Amino acid sequence: MQLYSFFNSSTSYRVRIALALKGLDYDYKGINIRVGEQRADDYRALNPSQGVPLLVEDDGTALSQSMAIIDYLDETHPEPRLLPAEPRARARVLELANAIACDMHPVNNLRILGYLKNRLEVSEEQKNDWYRHWIAEGFGAVEALLERYGHGPYCFGEAPTLADCCLVPQVANAERMGCDLSAYPRVMAVYQHCQRQPAFQQAAPSRQPDFTA
Amino acid sequence: MQLYSFFNSSTSYRVRIALALKGLDYDYKGINIRVGEQRADDYRALNPSQGVPLLVEDDGTALSQSMAIIDYLDETHPEPRLLPAEPRARARVLELANAIACDMHPVNNLRILGYLKNRLEVSEEQKNDWYRHWIAEGFGAVEALLERYGHGPYCFGEAPTLADCCLVPQVANAERMGCDLSAYPRVMAVYQHCQRQPAFQQAAPSRQPDFTA
User: Fold this and answer.
1) What is the CATH architecture of B2-80?
2) How many angstroms separate the CA atoms of A33 and A35, rounded?
3) ipTM
4) CB contact under 8 A, B48 and A102
5) Do B88 and A67 touch (CB under 8 A)?
6) Looking at residue B68, what is its pLDDT?
7) Boundaries of each GST N-terminal domain copy (chains A, B) (predicted)?
8) pLDDT tens-digit series, residues A77-115
9) Phi then psi for B49, rounded to 5 degrees?
10) Cβ of residue B147 closer than 8 Å to a chain A Cβ
11) What's the pLDDT tens digit per position in B95-113?
């Protein structure tokens, strides 16, 4: 199994956490999305969506989209399960995971910030305001979901789920951008708990072969 | 069962399609997100994420996030299945659905276009360029996925899936914004096929109680 990944990509980081939690080995293939390697012809042949992450199985089957990859890993390597079998528990995990995957990450990723800066020529301050605005909206919702439905030390109890796979990279991203996250104590408690676990540590950007400071 | 929905919300439209395909009855509750009804206190009490759609079951259980809602409906009302049981087929459906749900819809929805216009004060032309840019990036990827893995008349064969639930509202949205979609013949063939099906027709914005021209 191969994972095409960029060390600092939140969506790649999600999948790396899932792979580490399941104890699955893979070859790491770094794709530097900062310099556009995802648009190179040979990578596009592999992934017409031109993004990371991409999971390639030994028979050549390639799968993009982090949420699809993690669901697939959960179907094919169900131990430990990252999506509960019980429908309501499963729904809560997917609700929180998608609050991050659909409402937060897409509007603050590299391509969006790049468009704001290069095409719309917004100021650095405007770009940072944009980033912080969606972080506040998003983590406000996630904090409220955790308050209502969560129970620690992970988002939903004693075992990690897809929700934690999404939460950790999003917090790491916001911290890197200098956001004040003190208004989200439940989010931060989950984050800090996860950061102490070996699988989450192993998946961290700084531990990847393509990491650069 | 109640569905809080806005007629023109693509994520609400996805869930309406799923409910119609499964033949499930529900009370329609219109939330006008154009005037901010999602931020009213009584709605926030129900949905801390302050968005639509929201599914509320007869026992009061409330679930947000369209992708979580459809998965939940598929778990609890599996006929017809919108996510295949076979892992690779399921993965392809989720890959295409998330290419729309994560890469397209979030960056072009009402709140983003509103921020561009009101906070960043971009011109109408710049706003339209933004919209068209992400539609072209997104449908370029979806077209490539359909070319590689799809087989009609739906995205993946003879039966509708979550991928179709996501594709139809996104095409409708792009058409409403005046995008030229002729470069995506596979996307459009699926769209046109779906538009002829009663369940998709029943879920259309113009057929909802809160529709306004």
Assistant:
1) 3-Layer(aba) Sandwich (3.40)
2) 5
3) 0.98
4) no
5) no
6) 98
7) 1-81
8) 999 999 999 999 999 999 999 999 999 999 999 999 999
9) -75, -15
10) yes
11) 999 999 999 999 999 999 9
